[in-house]
Every structure is written in C-alpha cells, then in structure tokens.
UniProtKB/TrEMBL annotation:
InterPro entries: HAD-like_sf (IPR036412), HAD_sf (IPR023214). The keyword Hydrolase applies. It comes from Streptomyces salyersiae. The lineage of its organism: Bacteria, Bacillati, Actinomycetota, Actinomycetes, Kitasatosporales. This is HAD hydrolase family protein. One of its GO terms (molecular function) is hydrolase activity. Keywords: Hydrolase. SUPFAM superfamilies: HAD-like. It comes from the Bacteria.
Amino acid sequence: MTSAIDPPLPAVTRLIATDLDGTLLRDDKTLSDRTIAALAAAEEAGIEVFFVTGRPARWMDVVSAHVHGHGMAICANGAAVADLHADGRLVEVRPLERAAALDVVRILRDAAPSTSFAVELATGIHYEPSYPPFHLDPGATVAVAEKLLHEERPGVGAPVLKVLAHHPELTPDDFLALAREAAGGLASVTRSSPTALLEISGPGVSKAGTLAACCAERGIAPAEVVAFGDMPNDVEMLSWAGASFAMGNAHPAAVAAATGVTLTNNEDGVAVVIERILAER
C-alpha cells in the first residue's frame, strides 16, 4: 500500500475508471474546479474516463456536463451501461432475474426481519411503504416487493437492475455479511451507503465485470487501467485494475483491495492522481 505521493502507476494509462459518491464527488455532491480540469486534461491527453457507479442512469446529472469522448457510464454497480451523450439511454443491461429476486427477498425476510425493499428497474425505482425516504421517486409504485417483482407472464416488464434492502437495526457490515451468507449463491450482494442498505444484482454482476467487458471491446488491458473507489461495491474493480486507489475516506475493504491510497474526496484525491499520471507521461 502506498500514498498518492508515490503511486504505483501503469507504464501506459489508457483508461481511468472512477466511482462517483465518496470518490470523485465531494460530500455536497459537486465536482471541484480542480477535478473538472483534471478530467478534461485526461481526455485531451487521450485517456478515456469511465464513470463507474452504483447510481442509476437517471442520477448521472451530477457529471453529465463533464462528459468527454465516448460518454459512456457504467451504472447500477455494473447492471447497466448508459450513453450520457443520449440523456442516459441504456445501451446494455445485465438484469437480475425476477424469480431470483423473489427468492432473495424471501430469504432476507426470514434471515433479517424488519428488512424493507425497493426495486430498481431499467425504467425507475419502486419501493415498499416502509422503505426509508432516501431518493424516492414521486411517480413510483408503492407496494410490497413481491408485488413489485410479479409478472403476469414470464419476460414481461422492465428488466430488474437491482433490489435494494434496508435494515433499521443491523450495522451495515453485519447486514452485508448476513445477506451474502444467506443469499450470495443467488445474486451479487454489496453496499455503498453508510447505512444498512444493500444493493443486490444478478449473479456475477459487478462494476469490475462490466468494466472488464468495456475495456476488452476497446482493446484495453487491466494493466492499462487506473481505478478509484471508496466502498465495498468498488472492491472488485480496485482489485481488477492494474493500478487502483482507495480514497482517504474509504472503507477498510476498499483500502485492502487497492494498490494505493490517495487523498479524500473532499481533498480532490482523484485529481491529485490524474495530475501525476499526466505529469509522468
């Protein structure tokens, strides 16, 4: 593990993959002028920048004004690829099958009573009456998860990108460990919130898997990628990239997975490393 002062950088950096919340964005959900300039300079130097986030495509307005080059973003922890040049249109979806989602809901209701659920579809979010009011859509359907996931006929309805599960009493890491043990064979379970809020995707779906596929399409090797993240949902991506940096504010699991640690999100930790990459070219 090293600091951003002396980062282990690839011989050639062709792509930068960065998480948003807690990583590229400051705590007030904005980008600093320094970060905006660093992103633009990287693209001008021929380095592609991928935003890789747990956010759905409809919440990408925080960075849509700063998209260069390809304009693609990996959203919903790898469950979707969105074209930010086309108002977040989804160009690829890796869904969670509804039958599997229903099994996960049933298992977690039994394993952790008081769990409430939301269902993130390709068309928007829907949630249970007891689900906490985080970023609720006033146009959403409010019903029990079993009803939200029901299909009158197989294959009918928008793809499920992920199921969100919240527990009011368990600690975030305890809830994650419990859910992975109980339902990890049916789905990918991770978290990015400071609360006990889990994000449940299709089996094998992760930021790393979708990023790897996008890089392969472009002929970019893992050794040519520099990644940034701060939470458990970034661990696979940080482990996959040739060089990776956990933020100074990162969860211990992210720190353990990364090859280096940079400054916090409020201290422009991503920009610090990008500037170093450009200076060493």
